[in-house]
Write a structure and sequence with these properties.
mainly alpha
Length: 36
């Protein structure tokens, strides 16, 4: 893994990616609960 010039960029990108995944999982669970 290459170290970026600004480590904060990686942290932000990781946070955004994590938030997107969490949101997707929540939406999927919510949709699954409604379909059930």
């Amino acid at each position: 893994m290459h170290q970026t010039a600004d480590p904060e960029v990686t942290v932000v990108e990781f946070g955004v990616a994590g938030l997107a995944v969490a949101t997707d999982q929540l939406l999927t669970a919510f949709a699954g609960g409604r379909d059930a």
